[in-house]
Amino acid sequence: MSKAIPTFKATSYAFEEFVPAGNYIGGEWRDPSTGNWLPVENPRHGKPMSKVGLSDARDVAAAVEAAKAAQKSWRDVPIKERAQVMFKLKALMERDLVELGWLVSHENGKTFEEGKASVLKGIECVEFGASLPNAKAGEHLEVSRGVTCLETYEPLGVVAGITPFNFPIMVPLWMLPQALVAGNSFVLKPSEQVPLGSLKLASLLEEAGLPRGVFNIVHGGADAVNGICDHPDIKAVAFVGSTKIAKHVYSRSAATGKQALCLGGAKNHLIVVPDADPAVTTENVVASFTGGTGQRCMAASVLVAVGTVQHIIDRIAEVASKLQVGKDVGPVITKAAETRIKSYIDDAERRGAKVLVDGREKRGDGEGYWVGPTLLDNVSPDMPAGCEEIFGPVLSIVRVNTLDEAIALENNNPYGNAACIYTTSGAVAEYVVKRVEAGMVGVNIGVPVPREPFGFGGWNDSKFGAGNITGMDGYRFWTRPRKVTVKWAIQKDQTWMS
Predict the structure, then answer these.
(1) Are residues 167 and 311 in the same domain?
(2) From 125, 229, 262, 297, the catalytic residue
(3) Same domain, 138 and 194
(4) Looking at the domain assignment, is residue 450 inside a domain?
(5) For position 78, what pLDDT does the model report?
(6) 383: containing domain
(7) What CA–CA distances, in Å, run from 128 to 84, 216, 225?
(8) pLDDT, tens digit, for every residue of 224-242?
(9) Nearest to 256 by CA among 54, 52, 108, 64
(10) Assigned domain for 490 exists
(11) Is 297 labeled as catalytic in the residue annotation?
(12) Phi/psi at 104 (nearest 5 deg)?
C-alpha cells in the first residue's frame, strides 16, 4: 500500500476511485494479516471505488501494542499541549472541507451538501475537544481548615471506538477529541462499508502533530469487532450502530471489565397537533425524514397526527413529492438496504396503509441504490412500518385523537432516542417534553441533535451504558477521576472535620 493518503480529487458526483483502505498501526499503513479484502462501493454508481481489509484479532493486538507504547509518553504531555493537536486539526479540516465533503458523498451516498455539513459538525466536535483544558480547570476546594480536595481526570490507557456507515467522519469525531485530549491512545474500527474517511482523519491527525501510535485504525467486520471487545488491554469501548450489535458489543466488552457506551437504533416519533405552524412543520418534517436519505438514528420515522391536521399532512406530501432523487436525496448505502426499505413499503401497503408519496420507482443519476421519499398514511403501530426501524426515507403516519394517545404511542416503543412536538403552544410543548420517553426531544425541531457542549445520547433500547457520547460526558467516559485530599500542617483551631 501507499504510505501517503493522496488528495481525493472528485469535485462532482462523477465516479472516482480511491486508494485501498488498509490498517493504520503505529503510524504505518499495513495490509490485513488475513490477506482478505472487501470491495468498497460507491452507492450512487453501484460499483467499487476502493477495497478495505478484513482484519482479525491479530491486527487488533498489533494496534493495541502500538497504542500502548505511544500512550506511555502521550499521557505525560500536558493537557493544554495535547489540545493543541485539536486546534491544528480544526484548521486542517477547514482547509480540506470541500475534499472531505466529496469523499463522504462518494463513499456514503450523501449529497455533497449533506456530506459537507456532516464534516462541519465533526469540526465542531474537534473545537469542543480543544476547549477541554479550560472546561476542566479549577476543580480545587478548601473543604476544611488546612484541608484541600482536588479532582483530576486520568486517562484510561488504550481505548477504542466502533463506528457506523452513515457518518464516516462525524461519528469518529464524537469520540476522538475527548479521548485523545484526555491522554489516551485510540483504536478505531470504522464501518467496512465506509472506511475511506478514516484514512483522511489519520493523515490529518499526523499532519496536526499527533505522535505516531496514539491513533490507530483496524478495518474489518465481526472478527475485528470481537477482537476489540475481547482484548484485555483495551480499557473502554464506544459503539454507534444498530441496537442488536450495540447489545452484543456492550455485553461482550463489559464481560472483560471494560467501560462501554453503546448507542443503538431508534424509532423516532414526531407529534403534530392542530395548532402547529404549517410552514415550520412542513419544512422541518420533510427535512427530518429525507435528510441523509433517512439513514440516521435521528431521522423522523413516525408522524403522529393528533386530531385535525390533514392540512399539514397535505403540505408535507406536496413538498416531499417534489424532491429530486439524486439531487436533493442521495442513494441508500447498499442493494440490500434498498430491498429492505422497499419491502417495508410493500408490506404496509398490503396491510392497508395508503401510499401518499411513493419512492419505490424513483432513481437518481447513477446505477446505484435508490429509494425516493415515501409517505405512508393510516399506518397502525403494530405494522412493521409503524414499529421497526426502517433506516430509509420513509415516514409512517399514525392517526390518534388525543395528545395523551400520542405520548403513549411514543412511550410504548422500545427505543428512546428522540421525539418531537410541533406546536405553537408553550404549555403543550412543556407537557410533551416532560412525558415522552426519549433522551433527546425537539420542539418544532425534528432532528433534535444537541450542539456542543450538550451531549448526544438516547434512553431505553437506544443506549447501553451511562452518560452521553459527546460533550463533557464523553470526556468523563474516556477517563477515571482521581480525588486527592491534602493537609500539610496541624491547625490550632481544629474541628471534627480537620
Answers:
(1) no
(2) 297
(3) yes
(4) no
(5) 96
(6) 268-443
(7) 12, 22, 28
(8) 999 999 999 999 999 999 9
(9) 64
(10) no
(11) yes
(12) -60, -45
